[in-house]
Design a protein that fits this description.
Chain A is an alpha/beta fold and 611 residues long. Chain A has 21 helices and 22 strands. Chain A has a ten-stranded mixed beta sheet, with helices on both faces. Chain A starts with a strand and ends in an 18-residue tail after the last strand. The mean pLDDT of chain A is 94. The radius of gyration of chain B is 18 Å and the shape is extended. Chain B has a domain of 55 residues. By secondary structure, chain B is mainly α. Classes of the chains: A alpha/beta (611), B mainly alpha (107). At the A-B interface, helix 3, helix 4, helix 5, strand 5 and strand 7 of A face helix 1, strand 1, strand 2, helix 2 and helix 3 of B.
């Protein structure tokens, strides 16, 4: 039984195909259209999913959309009559077309794109947070689990607590729009000069530079948090409900002046605001988890999804609290994962199929997208006349890569199936030596063209985790932060440094550990553990690097430049390789050196709008 | 005045007539803001493909969480948009159409 799940028209459109409950293919539309967070109907992703399974639209049992347009309309209209009369026009200007042209006609529009709605003939719709809950529970390795979903808003819901057991999910508690932790975080993202819908992870990366001096102010003025983790926002400080922007003048006054202009200097105020709202989010998540635990006493497991579940710092804090013995978070926790959840929900709920569990998750390492076979890569290279080296064995290639990494070369890797979700997990990644003090700045400025304050994540051999990081268990999807061990310069205090030194780059370049390129300013790191089972090729590169250097850790960052979606195709990868100071490109078993490429290559797209 | 502007004006009037406040405020006395889940969380079939079906659905009260808000005017607006929309291939193809706003959360 094939079921197609679709998310579209909000953030990160995606399509997911499951067969008898197994994920066959999953991809985000942005990877094909090269438009970051593309929200349009995922025509390309749908086509990819059907092609991957070699099926036609009529072979689908059902098509499921991840959000209920009628409930969304209900929330929109409630919003419309709740705002001041002078704000109605603004709200209508912002939403009218997208609601009445696109969202209400999702069934018609999908039918045209897919060529039908499967054997069922009518579109199935799942509730937005139920899609998130399903994406968290069904692929998890647990028979039963407490479920927490937290995001900006989906229809009415912004937060839910629930319970999954066998093939059934029950939502127990909910919080509704406009009271939203995701919208609170987005408000701070906006006010600190980053783009809403794009920059939340930047705010998270900025937080360790600051001190939570506004924590009490936020709790006093902006959000009332109850002991059980439920909360409400003080709407006097926000403008999103009016369709204008995230915050208003009163918000600006509270923080001593207007919003930071995008791309202008980041000051202590923004750093402190980031630290403060991060602390609030961590507190709310912890309280929600305690409440979820009390509602589901017999269960040691927690699963999470929704955009806020991508806050790996909060996830790391939650893990250290040991409220639940086990935590599993959907790697595509944002709206893209809603496509997966809605398809699985239909399979288990609508069609009543039994769910079996072997104690391992069913996400397949989240490597669920397109891949290129060796002959396709060879044809691509030959057709374009690119110079390359081919290695006879994978071990030989990996030893060569280890040697080049040790020589401080920066390597782009495109191999195997593309990742589903926002993180590059090794198949569409840029890797580098983490022991280098200059590597973070070099990667940020010369390769990624992004802000210098932003940290890089480590990939680590699972067996070497304890040697380098203070994190128990594993983290295969880069969704938990832990602390770096083997610190040097233990007197280093970023806040003191920032008080004495305005040159952030010089502070970033101060060596703080044996692996400085992946040691954030507070000694934290967003960790991805690697095993032979999770990613054999990546494991072998790490192993070769460890054999050569004694270090089983590498830098892993997504294969893209700032503003660009992660590369999908061979063409995307080669273009990005030639557009940056990357030294080497690995395409499957093939290795390309920048210095051996023809000088006259015309880059297809040199720049992307900054995110 | 374009057809869209006319419908927006009608909707503004509708909003004025139906003025209400569906945003609960902070209540320092309350112990919790959680609500028990009231929504039917089952998957459903989307039941409309023309104005008549949509209107019937909206007026049935079966799908509204809060009453007296979903109204004929929405059905009309939606149906007109459906009628006036160009085919899928003709829209959403420019970068501008596909980009998310960067000043406000997309909801």
């Amino acid at each position: 039984m094939y079921i197609l799940g679709v998310s579209a028209l909000y953030h990160d459109s995606a399509a997911v195909l499951i067969k008898d409950g197994e994920i066959i293919a999953a991809a985000q539309e942005e990877r094909f259209t090269r438009i970051k967070h593309d929200a349009s109907i995922p025509e390309n992703a749908i086509r990819y999913c059907l092609n991957e399974a070699k099926i036609e639209a009529e072979d689908l049992e059902a098509v499921v959309y991840y959000d209920d347009p009628v409930l969304m309309l209900d929330r929109f209209l409630s919003n419309l009559i709740s705002v001041k009369e002078e704000d109605v026009s603004c709200l209508l200007d912002y939403s009218f077309e997208s609601i009445f042209r696109d969202k209400m006609w999702i069934a018609e529009n999908l039918k045209q794109v897919i060529g039908g709605l499967g054997k069922r003939g009518k579109l199935l719709v799942s509730k937005h947070h139920m899609s998130h809950a399903a994406s968290a529970f069904y692929p998890s390795p647990f028979d039963c689990a407490a479920i927490i979903t937290v995001d900006g808003v989906g229809e009415w819901n912004t937060t839910t607590l629930g319970y999954g057991s066998g093939n059934k999910i029950t939502i127990l508690k909910e919080l509704n729009y406009p009271h939203s932790l995701g919208l609170l975080y987005s408000a701070f993202t906006y006010f600190c000069g980053f783009k809403v819908n794009y920059g939340d992870y930047k705010l998270m990366g900025l937080a360790p530079y600051g001190e939570p001096v506004y924590y009490d102010l936020i709790k006093k003025e902006l959000i009332d948090v109850k002991e059980d983790g439920s909360f409400r926002l003080n709407l006097e400080y926000f403008d999103f409900q009016n369709g204008r922007s995230m915050t208003n003048e009163k918000f600006a006054q509270l923080f001593g002046g207007s919003r930071r202009e995008p791309e202008s200097t980041i000051t202590n105020r923004e750093m402190n605001m980031a630290a403060s709202v991060q602390k609030v989010v961590e507190e709310v998540i912890e309280k929600l988890a305690i409440t979820a635990r009390s509602l589901t006493k017999q269960c040691d497991n927690l699963v999470m999804a929704g955009g806020v579940a991508l806050n790996c710092v909060a996830n790391g804090v939650l893990r250290r609290k040991n409220i639940f013995k086990n935590i599993w978070i959907q790697p595509a926790a944002g709206d893209a994962g809603g496509a997966l959840g809605s398809a699985m929900l239909a399979y288990y709920s609508t069609y009543g199929m039994q769910r079996t569990n072997n104690g391992r998750d069913k996400q397949k390492g989240s490597l669920l997208g397109p891949e290129y076979k060796t002959d396709e890569i060879q044809t691509f290279l030959d057709r374009n006349g690119y110079n390359f080296h081919k290695y006879n064995t994978v071990d030989e290639l990996c030893r060569k890569l280890a040697e080049e990494l040790d020589a401080q070369k920066i390597i782009g890797v495109i191999t195997g199936r593309m990742e589903f979700g926002p993180r590059a997990l090794g198949n569409r990644s840029i890797i580098a030596d983490p022991r280098s003090r200059e590597m973070q700045a070099k990667l940020n400025i010369s390769i990624k063209h992004r802000e210098s304050f932003r940290p890089f994540a480590p990939i680590v051999l699972k067996e070497a985790l304890d040697q380098f990081f203070d994190l128990e268990g594993d983290s295969p999807y880069m969704l938990f932060c832990g602390n770096v061990k083997n610190r040097c310069n233990t007197d280093f205090n970023v806040h003191e440094q920032l008080r004495e030194n305005t040159d952030m780059l010089s502070i970033i370049n101060m060596k703080r550990s044996d692996i400085p390129a992946v040691t954030h300013i507070d000694y934290s790191a967003r960790i991805q553990t690697v095993t032979e089972e999770s990613n054999d090729f990546l494991y072998r590169i790490l192993k070769s690097f460890e054999e050569r250097t004694g270090c089983g850790v590498l830098v892993n960052t997504s294969f893209n430049v700032r503003g660009e979606p992660i590369v999908c195709s061979l063409e995307d990868a080669y273009d990005c390789f030639m557009n940056t100071d990357m030294d080497i490109l690995v395409m499957g078993e093939y290795l390309l050196y920048k210095q051996e490429q023809e000088k006259g290559y015309e880059i297809r797209r040199k720049s992307y709008e900054l995110d | 005045m374009s057809s869209i502007d006319i419908e927006k004006e009608r909707m503004k009037e509708w909003a004025k007539i139906n003025k209400g406040d569906y945003f609960p405020r902070i209540d320092t006395e309350a112990e919790s803001y959680f609500e028990d889940c009231k929504t039917n969380m089952e998957i459903t079939e989307l039941q409309f493909s023309d104005m008549k079906q949509l209107q019937a659905l909206l007026e049935s009260g079966k799908i509204a969480v809060k009453d007296k808000k979903i109204d004929l005017i929405c059905a009309v607006a939606a149906f007109k948009r459906k009628q006036s929309k160009v085919d899928l291939a003709g829209r959403g193809n420019t970068r501008e159409d596909k980009e998310l706003p960067d000043f406000i959360y997309q909801f």
